[in-house]
Automatic annotation (TrEMBL):
InterPro entries: NADH_UbQ_OxRdtase_chain4L/K, NUOK/Mnh_C1-like. GO terms for biological process: ATP synthesis coupled electron transport. The chain crosses the membrane at residues 6-23, 28-48, 60-83. It is a multi-pass membrane protein. It comes from the Bacteria. Its EC number is 7.1.1.-. NDH-1 shuttles electrons from NADH, via FMN and iron-sulfur (Fe-S) centers, to quinones in the respiratory chain. The immediate electron acceptor for the enzyme in this species is believed to be a menaquinone. Couples the redox reaction to proton translocation (for every two electrons transferred, four hydrogen ions are translocated across the cytoplasmic membrane), and thus conserves the redox energy in a proton gradient. The gene is nuoK. One of its GO terms (cellular component) is plasma membrane. One of its GO terms (molecular function) is NADH dehydrogenase (quinone) (non-electrogenic) activity. This is NADH-quinone oxidoreductase subunit K.
Length: 99
């Protein structure tokens, strides 16, 4: 596969993730959309790192994976807390964090 194929695949994955975040109201599905966008950025970073022959992009992708794992832990804890109080995982019902 060439560079263009990887970038097109990354763009498609990022578009699916962005569409999921913008359209879906369920917080867990929105969190999955964010993960898709982060994975698309990782694919782009690793593609360019391979193209240039250095490890910088792969190291940055590794840090993005670490941040994504932490984000999932915190995000799921917040979603479970909201679900326990409201019996809904909708992002529209999550207004208790505003003030």
């Amino acid at each position: 596969m060439s560079l263009v194929h990887y970038l097109v695949l990354s763009g498609i994955i990022f578009s699916i993730g962005a569409t999921t975040v913008l359209i879906r109201r369920n917080a867990i599905i929105a969190l999955l959309g964010v993960e898709l966008m982060l994975n698309a950025s990782n694919l782009t970073l690793v593609t360019f790192a391979r193209l240039h022959g250095d490890l910088t992009g792969q190291v940055i992708a590794f840090f993005v994976m670490i941040v994504a794992a932490a984000e999932v832990v915190v995000g799921l804890a917040i979603i479970v807390s909201i679900y326990r109080t409201r019996r809904s995982a909708s992002v529209d019902d999550a207004s208790l964090l505003k003030s």
